[in-house]
Amino acid sequence: MNTAKGLKGVVAVETSISSVDGKNGILLYRGLDICEVMKKASFEKAAYFLWYGKWPDDYELTTIKNELSQHRMLSSEMKQLIDGLRKNMDMMSVIRTAVSSEGTMDYSWKPTIGQAIRLTAQVPSIIAYRKRTLEGKAPVSPDPALNHVENYLCMLYGSVPSKAHANALEAYMILTLEHGMNASTFSARVTASTESDLVSAATSAIGTMKGPLHGGAPSGVIDLLHEISEATHIEKVLRGKLSKGEKLMGFGHRVYKTLDPRAIALKERLLQTAGEDPWLDLALETERIAVELLKEYKPGRALYTNVEFYAAAIMKAIQMEPELFTPTFTASRMVGWTAHVLEQSEDNTIFRPESVYIGPDHSVAGKI
């Protein structure tokens, strides 16, 4: 029997949600190149596009904005649940526990887009409520006048964010809405394939995202940018690392063997706000110099920035703590997870892969 550890290279589903071509550096949302998505999309538009498979008209956009806004407020029961959790519980575990409590509501099979909207609206509120209560600060109520990303930042930090910061984080969250059959998306579809509810599928995905091999924070990139900012000489720092054979964090990707299309799209959006934030400007200049030096030190390797490089710069610019990186990733990826569960429900077959037994045979086991 042919085996593939980790199911690598095994086709498990057919999907029309996204396509990831690592060899050629292409990411498509519903057949549209990610750079084109970024040119025309807000978070709400992109989410609608993934859920419905078409762009919203003005009425539909207003409707989905209102629906997201209506579901931002946490119930008193959920707040009590969060308040009762251990103070040292990590944020991903808090999100997993809080989201799973939504299973007490009507989330029966088959899943609906309305349920997907509610879960997407709730996660940023869960993160913000937990963060502020742990800090001894009063929770900030959702502001219906703000869009999804602006409201998230406002609830986290207590004030309306600058345009540059809101635009930068929105760009990152659009780019992380969806990324093919990754581990967390697969776990969501496996759970849904049993005709379990959307909350259970989302909880499975969150638990998978928590693992450092999947949703790990780009702390190494932040350390690099810190070192550069303190040295005030980008090329000297980078040459020093490359001369010692050290890896430049944020360059190269295990999937994309050429330019990471998400990094390209994110860079284009950040260039629109050049000069408005020193950390974002530092990242742009660091990338320019690093790419040239990598060609010199590692010819033929085709090492370019990945999305984590600019994600780290954005998180640093908005002063987001590293422990909130993966939770914020989760807040955006909820859209992709729920889109996949909805798709799974339309043509469902329970997942039941085979395994290869490598233990002792019965004759040996019987003598023990």
Automatic annotation (TrEMBL):
Gene3D superfamilies: Citrate Synthase, domain 1, Cytochrome P450-Terp, domain 2. CDD domains: BsCS-I_like. Pathway: Carbohydrate metabolism; tricarboxylic acid cycle. It catalyses: oxaloacetate + acetyl-CoA + H2O = citrate + CoA + H(+). Keywords: Transferase. Pfam families: Citrate_synt. Signal peptide: none annotated. Belongs to the citrate synthase family. This is Citrate synthase. It comes from Fictibacillus fluitans.
